[in-house]
UniProtKB/TrEMBL annotation, chains A, B, C:
Residue numbers binding substrate: 106, 144, 310
Superkingdom classification of source: Bacteria
CDD domains linked: A4_beta-galactosidase_middle_domain (cd03143)
EC number, UniProt record: 3.2.1.23
Domain Beta-galactosidase trimerisation intervals: 390-594
GO CC field: beta-galactosidase complex
Catalytic activity field: Hydrolysis of terminal non-reducing beta-D-galactose residues in beta-D-galactosides
Residue stretches making up the Glycoside hydrolase family 42 N-terminal domain: 9-379
Family: Belongs to the glycosyl hydrolase 42 family.
Chain positions recorded as Zn(2+) binding sites: 110, 153, 155
Annotated protein name in UniProt: Beta-galactosidase
Signal peptide boundaries: none
Keyword Transferase: no
Length: 665, 665, 665
């Protein structure tokens, strides 16, 4: 990326051509440099099967080119026109209970449907051929928000595709029976034809079958993506390709299997403005999406200028909040700040979703903030190529997430995102920058690795962690990690069997807490509390850092520390309260030699550094309600206010932002 | 109506003929003058297709005639017999998710079903022909509680009928595409055949499609009604026709499109006895049903003598409560007080629904109160023709209600009935009589018009309000009114665009409150609070009456007042707490020259006046827990205690009632 | 039973033969004497239709015989293999809304399916023939947990079977119409073919139809059981047959119609370890299952060694709790203590269900406690044949339970188990031993009979209670008893009509309390409170023991006492708070001459006596958190600590147990 892109989804088909001219004028005023066009244009460009009407779209593309606005051109396949499902109702997705969904909203296709894929590929061939070489074409946007509404389809077409997928994976029915533990409950399969998706059953369906259906469903959507990508690579080989993941972190798709097939990764981000900590969740998502491409800049492809319309109650973003959140994305590696959408629609299901140009038009608070931010971002193009670096890695894996949240577990309170955020938030608050990486990744470059509830851990991952610690790494593992293998089969011999030696302990039994329950915790003699979980730990070499304070487990280990090889491995047998976990992680990071971006920052100030060719960019973002002054380690200019004059201290208003050029780490 | 009718649903088929004789004796004892008969008799009178058995019903009708009890004769089509759906399963209604419902309860027919309609019409022809001219026949009761359980059907028969209905409405598919904003999410239709009902879809279905499905579904039930009415008008041209709406206010049917086809309107009313304010909701429903026929007396066709059986927990009505509630209906214009049902059934789904003759028989509290009230009502026949008058109109519109409560809005907390009652209750408590009228109605006869959340407002309605205020009217508009047109398309140019000049302001952005949230409000410097909603208002001529007291909107307008033409228009940008709204409305009514029925009444005393040929009837109803004395403006006799002797003051026991003849307004 | 059996479900197919050898070694170590084998072996022994592979199972049976472990041999039909439903999808059960369930879990068969029954019978023939006379075969276990997941099936096969069942029951369609009160809502049937199961309907389905569907569904599962039993009785005539009921008390199956066909009755018991009163519910289930066979020893066929995995959150059993709960079962008549399951599975839906041998193996707390208890139970074989005796009977009837919890009742708060436990718990706490018996049973042997919410009461039961009281019995009847007959038709003439003379009162009207509501109660002038319900009682000879203290019913009777014949009948018109009900029942038991097992026991100590050939066994179980000392009426030896030495007092640690031999009653 050669600049910080700014813009949003542009759906000109909602408006008359006179409005298009006003659009281009306003885009210039707001420094818009990129729009995503055509996402829902299928029914307009192919009004009847095989009949195309691209004339109006040519006009739009030409106007964009003339206006100097780049097109992130959608393949237009996100939502098939009514004629497709009317002629081929078998493409409509089916729920787990057998309900076939209807057209009339969007995304109404079974991702395994060959009929859908053929029609989509035929359209993409048209679009790609027509706009190959068009001066506005900057990038391809395949589909839209894959898996957002249809996380899995349970139709008979999907069932057949699932059987093919399983045959590929397991080769023999005996291997599948072993992987799925089908001796349990008399589920042994004699033939592939006997296998169905995990539809609604009398009680808990086979967990390995459910886990494989998650994998299959992610791959089914990926299949749609790859079908289109194949066309684009052939017709327009040099144009980069992306698709937008649904944020925060999307459960349905295993990003790690997608991003190798993307030239740039993109994220949609919709933190809830009612949530005072929504920016922490957003930051986590940004760190993850950045890490899927090892730090390569990514695109914030969608965010809301103000309110959304799809929550039960939808708050606007207060004055300054949109700017603050946009800068946060840039601070954490974004190369583009784009919105859904350019102009607020008068009709349809998202007419109350805010837009860059609201129903009220140009004379609105929202538009004014949009235009101001556009100008501001355009003033710092040099940020585009710089990168974030981190000493701490948090492990995240979709296979484990899917497995962790299956039914029939010790406690339904174990939610992957809760676990991630519980461990991520104290590091965020301490301004310790983290990557969020796949567990199979080489880890030796990190000073600290945090493993929250990595329930499923195949042998390779366990070995990766072992050698990391043995080689001198610092490791934090939370409870209920390393419990099952890739087929959701428990490791025998004392939990967590593959890490017992690394952690220097075994867990005799899980003691999840009752609903809303808490348990006392004693850390160095100080009383604290913990929630969600406890367990009966027997140390085998580890030293006890905290003990449970009450109940049947009183006096037993709650937090331990073990040296293993040249490294150190910590274990959390419960979820300590936020303050206690913050203190523990402060101690652990200090021991690991991990430093915050800046020490001693006021509460609520976020600090991140991007490393560029000409120096380091320090982003300071004030999430607090009060103005604060940050003294810099050495004088540096604030690029947003006075790029030419170094300053010794920065005054940050509430929701204030500063971008300082200098050397900070 | 020449008298106050009294009685209830009579289902003689549950009992042997000996019981019928006892029934007639008890009806005489309880002064019963009308019963609704035959509602669920289809399976008895047509036990097999085309075979009729009316003999037993002849006997019942003859006994009624002999006993001087009028028959409100049902067309017997409310619940088809099992043989109909067994032979024609396609008549069974289908839920939005595709579940086909079963027989075994009641109302198991798709209202669009031609098979159902033909069988119903064939039966009505038989019934009407047989009882034309029967001395007991006083009135026809078509069907029963249309739309009570089946608010919409989503079967394929309905889909075809929906397409026909749309073709009638829009004439061209292009017009439909425009009205439904189908450019959004690639929903453009190329042909009528592609259109389906808004069944369960991957996410929010098209809102205009949903809105039209509400309209269509109301019309589908109306089609059933009109099919039967056609037979009755032909066979028994002089006999008035009614059908009973389900109270409180029924969402499924647009009463305003039904009542032109009814000779008398009827309402079922089941306020919850646990709810200390249930009578306010009931009053609102009574004012609405009365207003649909411009004040013509209406029938309270069903109420419970005591408990119902279909709530989660069902309280009986305490001693006196049934009488008080019955008199409230009369006070607000009812010409009949009827119950469901005469004699409590031993079996079936409503055996625990109270009846005029309970399981315990004649020696029960409920029966005694029923018989007492019958005698009391019979003593004041002169009330029957008198009418209620009101200076205040509240606007209610089904199209707007349906649209308001669609998904994907700024806040799901916006519920039409809540909005209505929030504004109606303070007027009720102040004993200001209201009509509840359609927005297209001529309004100049009213001194004040209140518009709670009239989200959908077509151009004609906006013009109606503008000319009303310009002509000197007083108007109160609450937030989120005038937002969309008849196709649920937002008006552009600053909310509420069609009323900005009338109100002297624009709304820049909606700020709905979080769940259970409240916001401070400062009215003339006094602190108050508000709930549900706030918004960013920019005045354009209006004066600010109250400002928000805290949060991001602190100091911005919360309540405004604007003069426009010869009138005044108030705007509520939030929902003030009850006391604050009461004070505001007291000020507004005073300014508009609206007076309470009687000034200075004790809290909890309801006062309404009916205007008759021989004078005014003042109803005083004590809803409070204490006895109170009401001093009259001039001496008047209480028709219920001593009709011959004027009194200067009335003592009302708790749940006490007085009906005074005199001149009060 | 000649001993106290100990063991659990054994599923060797999950493991390799080497593990089987370790299993037998550990079974010996843990004194295991019986295992339930083969429950889910169908897919292993019949991998393809008609092809059998019993070789591996022969090995297991031989090893068990060699190890001296008895086999409770399952008929292997609990969960059909995937090939069966793939070839015959019509065997898959269908939900009330029409959703057809899928294979992939367990119990995926319609109990009315002839295809399932034929395949099951064919398999049972194979199993029975093969293992007839095998030295390990001790008992047959038919199916498993009938009705656990599939409480009723609503498919078309079931519909046809239901029609046959109805034809048997009613003989004529006229009789069915009368029993089902089909004049209500026009539901009259002209032909059997018109009848469907009570599937989802527009509103409440016919209650008598629902009630009969409960009866039919219990009989449908019983039909499966009897189909298998017929084979076993023919092939292995001398071997006793059982099946395991799901505890606590299972609603789907009418145990009273099953137990005549069982040689021994069995129960699964899974009290929630989070629930400090879980043992009271368990005790109630034990007393009921024992009473179904008039005190014959029964089998605790399944319990968890520690945590289960199917609740939302699953607590382990703290140290000592499993032992305490096991002894409680023995105290209340069990002849076997068995677990699900022997060895914790690595995969499948129950891998986190605890087992006798956990994932962690032999060196675990759970295994140690299991092995200790095995040795302890083996030390007291003499307990096996002894029996519990009771002076108090609580009436329980499935027909009434089903009817009570149907929809459209005065209050949904009436739950049969809540009512039972409300009345049972104070007796349990007072150490008054109860039987829980069917209402048609001869009652004269009991000193006191308690009738909690026996809503449905046919004429025979009413007569049974009348003659019991007339003959000198003491009776306690709670509200909403004796309301309807066997067809759910209300008795007319004042509630509870069939018992009005016995109770000396009538109930004019039900006054259920609002959600979470309570009402004051005055007992002998002392203030108390009550919940759930109140009602308007008119005494007709009964004396008033307590009155309502507030609200509309203030001063009216809340609890009454009536002498009738030679006996006494109490009536509870509400549910008094626990302390008040305890005091009332203390007074009532004292009057009836009922004594606690031991007087003056410390709070939390459970005492039960089993009567054996050589004397009485007094079980003392400490459920409290503190150690307590119990002084015995006369010295007796504690069989668990020092069988040879009588002691005057027993010290019970928390969760402590003592079994004393002597004479105590």
């Amino acid at each position: 990326m050669d600049r910080l892109y700014y813009g949003g989804d542009y759906n000109p088909e909602h408006w008359s051509p006179e409005v298009w001219d006003e659009d281009l004028k306003l885009m210039a005023e707001a420094s818009v440099s990129m729009v995503t066009v055509g996402i829902f244009s299928w029914a307009q460009v192919e009004p009847r099967p095989g009949e195309y009407d691209f004339g109006w779209f040519d006009t739009v593309m030409d106007k964009l080119a003339a206006g100097g606005v780049d097109a992130c051109l959608a393949t237009m396949t996100a939502s098939p026109p009514p004629w497709l499902s009317q002629r081929h109702p078998e493409i409509l997705p089916v729920r787990v209970d057998g309900t076939r969904l209807s057209a009339g909203a969007r995304q109404q296709f079974c991702p395994s449907s060959p009929v859908y894929r053929e029609h989509a590929a035929r359209l993409v061939e048209q679009v790609a051929t027509r706009y190959a070489g068009h001066p506005a074409l900057k990038m391809w946007h395949i589909g839209n928000e894959f898996g957002c509404h249809i996380r899995a389809c349970y139709c008979d077409v999907s069932a057949a595709a699932f059987r093919d997928w399983l045959r590929d994976r397991y080769q023999s029915i005996e291997a599948l029976n072993a992987a799925w533990s089908t001796t349990f409950w008399s589920q042994r399969y004699g033939d592939w034809a006997e296998i169905e998706p995990p539809r609604v059953a009398p009680t808990f369906p086979n967990p390995a079958q459910q886990l494989d259906y998650h994998r299959f469903s992610s791959d089914a959507s990926l299949g749609c993506y790859l079908t289109e990508r194949e066309v684009l690579s052939r017709v327009t080989p040099g144009v980069p390709v992306t698709t937008n993941f649904v944020g925060l972190v999307q459960k349905a798709l295993d990003w790690h299997s997608w991003t190798p097939h993307e030239d740039v990764v993109s994220l949609d981000s919709y933190p809830d403005p009612y949530d005072p900590r929504g920016h922490v969740e957003a930051a986590f998502a940004y760190d993850l999406v950045r890490s899927t491409k090892d730090g390569q800049p990514w695109l914030l492809l969608e965010q809301a200028p103000s309110a959304v319309n799809w929550r039960t109650r939808n708050s606007p973003k207060p004055p300054g909040a949109m700017r603050l959140g946009s800068w946060q994305a840039v601070a954490r590696g974004a190369a583009a700040v784009l919105f859904f959408q350019w102009r607020q629609t008068a009709g349809g299901a998202e007419k109350f979703h805010s837009a860059m140009v609201p129903h009220g038009g140009r004379d609105t608070r929202a538009y004014r903030e949009v235009a101001d931010l556009g100008r501001e971002l355009a003033s710092v193009p040099q940020l585009a190529g710089s990168r974030v670096k981190a000493d701490v890695a948090i492990l995240h894996d979709w296979n484990s997430w899917w497995a962790l949240e299956l039914d029939s577990h010790p406690s339904d309170d174990l939610r992957q995102l809760d676990a991630h955020l519980a461990h991520y938030a104290p590091l965020f608050d301490a301004n310790v920058t983290c990557d969020v990486v796949r567990p199979t990744r080489e880890l030796s470059g990190y000073k600290l690795v945090v493993v929250p509830n990595l329930y499923l851990m195949d042998a390779g991952v366990a070995e990766n962690l072992r050698s990391y610690v043995a080689g001198g790494g610092h490791l934090v593992v939370s409870f209920f990690s390393g419990i099952v293998d890739e087929n959701d089969r428990a490791y025998l011999g004392g939990y967590p069997a593959p890490l017992r030696d690394v952690l220097g302990l075994k867990v005799d039994e899980f003691w999840p807490l009752p609903e809303g329950g808490s348990i006392g915790l004693s850390v160095d003699g100080t009383g604290a509390s913990a929630t969600i979980w406890s367990e009966w730990v027997e140390t085998e070499g580890a030293s006890v850092v905290a003990t449970f304070g009450d109940g049947e487990l009183a006096g037993r280990p709650g937090v331990t520390r073990n040296t293993f090889g040249d490294g150190v491995a910590w274990y959390l047998a419960t979820r300590p309260d936020a303050a206690t976990l913050r203190a523990l992680l402060d101690r652990i990071t200090a021991e690991a030699g991990v430093s915050p971006v800046l020490p001693g920052l006021p509460e609520g100030v976020q600090a991140v550094v991007r490393h560029g060719a000409e120096g380091q960019y320090l982003f300071l973002l004030n999430h607090g309600a009060e103005a604060v002054t940050v003294t810099l380690p050495s004088p540096a200019p604030d690029l947003l206010t006075d790029p030419g004059r170094p300053t010794e201290a920065v005054l940050l208003a509430p929701r204030g932002v500063a971008v300082l050029l200098g050397s900070f780490t």
